[in-house]
């Protein structure tokens, strides 16, 4: 009896895993054009894939970023991510390219809907953003400040490390400096704790007990 129950339980688990897998595959195919950015840059493709996860989960900050920093119409972005089932990464590319070439986001959206089979790399070339050009570097560099505003970690490739040599180091440096400052205060109880800053000038100095009493007197 126990063996039979175990067999039924195992079959249920297997079925659940199959259904979950099928659901995940179906979700991946929910995007109108599937998902195959082909930007011509491996790093960019990787980040666009990550944007799909972020934009799907955190819709509002993703939309706000495109509206505020790329001049995209909010109603268009919401429509693309919603009823029109665009992948967030595709929406990002359309609005980013549009802001760089000085055209409305709708213009790039219409072009991609018509020629999406060519991939983003070819569409960008047609719009004057060629691999290695200043415009392409501007497109690529734009990922970094967006991720910083979202508070989302981002791994830079060799090219971007040259553009942002101190990226990710400022917080660590500040933390190190704060620790050093903290240690300095805690280790300075003998000289500055009760002397100048402890009960001296800051603490009881001004009230008359610092300089003559516990301030410089004990120091």
What does this 3D model show about the protein?
It is a single chain. This protein starts with a helix and ends in a 5-residue tail after the last helix. Helix content is 73%, strand content 0%. It is mostly helical. It is built from 13 helices and no strands. Residues 165-219 are annotated as: Disordered. Residues 181-219 have a biased composition (Gly residues). Keywords: Signal. This is Pentapeptide repeat-containing protein.
Question: Quick gist of this model?
Answer:
The protein has helices spanning 2-28, 42-57, 59-70, 74-81, 88-101, 105-115, 119-126, 134-141, 143-150, 158-163, 170-187, 189-196, 200-214.
Topology (elements, then pairings):
Elements: H1 2-28, H2 42-57, H3 59-70, H4 74-81, H5 88-101, H6 105-115, H7 119-126, H8 134-141, H9 143-150, H10 158-163, H11 170-187, H12 189-196, H13 200-214
Helix pairs in contact: 2-3, 2-5, 5-6, 12-13
Q: How far is the N terminus from the C terminus?
A: 84 Å
Number of beta strands: 0
Beta-strand percentage? Answer: under 5%
Mean pLDDT value: 77
Report on the biggest sheet: none
Task: Write the H/E string, N to C.
Answer: HHHHHHHHHHHHH
Query: Structural class from helices and strands?
Result: mainly alpha
Biased composition (Gly residues): 181-219
Signal peptide: 1-28
Organism: Noviluteimonas lactosilytica
Keywords: Signal
């Amino acid at each position: 009896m126990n063996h039979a129950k175990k067999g039924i339980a195992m079959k249920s688990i297997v079925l659940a895993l199959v259904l979950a897998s099928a659901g995940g595959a179906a979700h991946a195919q929910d995007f109108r054009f599937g998902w195959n950015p082909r930007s011509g840059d491996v790093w960019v493709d990787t980040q666009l894939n990550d944007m799909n996860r972020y934009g799907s989960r955190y819709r509002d900050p993703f939309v706000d970023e495109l509206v505020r920093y790329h001049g995209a119409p909010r109603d268009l972005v919401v429509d693309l991510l919603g009823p029109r089932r665009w992948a967030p990464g595709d929406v990002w590319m359309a609005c980013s390219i549009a802001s760089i070439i000085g055209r409305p986001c709708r213009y790039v959206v219409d072009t991609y809907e018509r020629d999406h089979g060519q991939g983003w790399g070819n569409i960008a070339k047609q719009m004057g953003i060629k691999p290695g050009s200043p415009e392409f570097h501007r497109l690529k560099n734009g990922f970094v400040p967006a991720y910083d505003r979202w508070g989302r970690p981002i791994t830079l490739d060799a090219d971007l490390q040259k553009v942002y040599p101190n990226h990710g180091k400022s917080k660590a440096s500040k933390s190190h400096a704060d620790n050093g400052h903290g240690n300095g205060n805690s280790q300075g109880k003998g000289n500055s704790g009760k002397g100048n800053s402890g009960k001296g000038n800051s603490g009881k100095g001004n009230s008359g007990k610092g300089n003559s009493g516990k301030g410089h007197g004990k120091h």
